[in-house]
Design brief:
Blueprint lengths: L1 E5 L3 H10 L4 E3 L2 H7 L3 H11 L4 E5 L5 H12 L5 E6 L2 H12 L4 E6 L2 H10 L3 E5 L1 H4 L5 H15 L4 E5 L4 H9 L4 E4 L1 H7 L3 H16 L12
Parallel strand pairs: 1-2, 1-8, 2-3, 3-4, 4-5, 5-6, 6-7, 7-8
Helix pairs in contact: 1-3, 4-5, 5-6, 6-8
Length: 224
């Protein structure tokens, strides 16, 4: 499964990119607004920090003609950019148009398998199924993800299912269980994936024993 970072914070992208496990970055208008920097400037910096990664940048208009103008502008900035489009009627039409032009798309705010079907038929590169927002209202967001994965695979659609609105590591575990293609998450959640108390206690014991014995990896190797 691919791992994407969900942020508009360039410093978070820089830190995560250093780990070598990030395949892309997703942004949205809220995240970009929080960054306090320009949209184009931020997106291009993220492309630079994650070379070869898929970088999603979203249109903000809701009528087809303006959405198309925005999408073409955004796509022209860098070949790594994926145009993010909301699952609304003009959005699905836009995805069809962009697909015909060879421009990659990420359809966002998808909550049901029927919405996902429309995105897949329009040719979406990524389908962003939201889970946390559904869980927040006492639903099971992962049900739609599982159904979408099955739908895409059963009918041979080329779209990849992207688990979005990830709140905690258990959502990542569930995404793996249903064979989602991608999970995008905040920096804090990716940090949590590293953590386990037995890792911490085991490492502490190893180092305590090593230091007690007075050992050195460079012993006798002529390293000052």
């Amino acid at each position: 499964m691919k791992l994407f970072l969900d942020t508009g914070d360039v410093e978070e992208v820089k830190k995560a990119a250093e780990w070598g496990v990030i395949d892309g970055v997703t942004t949205n208008p809220t995240l970009i607004a929080k960054s306090g920097k320009g949209f184009r400037e931020t997106v291009l910096k993220i492309c630079e920090l994650v070379p070869g990664g898929a970088i999603s940048a979203e249109v903000v208009a809701t009528d087809y003609d303006t959405m198309l103008k925005e999408a073409l502008e955004i796509a022209s900035w860098h070949d790594q950019i994926v145009v993010k489009v909301p699952l609304i009627e003009p959005g699905v039409r836009l995805v069809s148009t962009l697909t015909e032009r060879g421009i990659r798309t990420n359809v966002t705010l998808v909550f049901t398998v029927t919405q996902a079907m429309l995105a897949a038929k329009a040719g979406a590169t990524f389908i962003s199924n939201f889970v946390g927002r559904v869980d927040d209202i006492s639903g099971d967001g992962m049900e739609a993800v599982a159904a979408t994965v099955e739908m895409v695979e059963s009918y041979g659609f080329e779209s990849e299912v992207l688990v979005a609105s990830v709140r905690h590591p258990q959502h990542v575990v569930q995404a793996l269980a249903v064979r989602a293609h991608i999970a995008t998450m905040p920096f804090g959640v990716i940090q949590q994936l590293f953590k386990h108390p037995l890792t911490d206690s085991g490492l502490k014991r190893f180092l305590d024993d090593w230091n007690k014995a007075g050992l050195s990896i460079f012993e006798g190797a002529g390293v000052a």
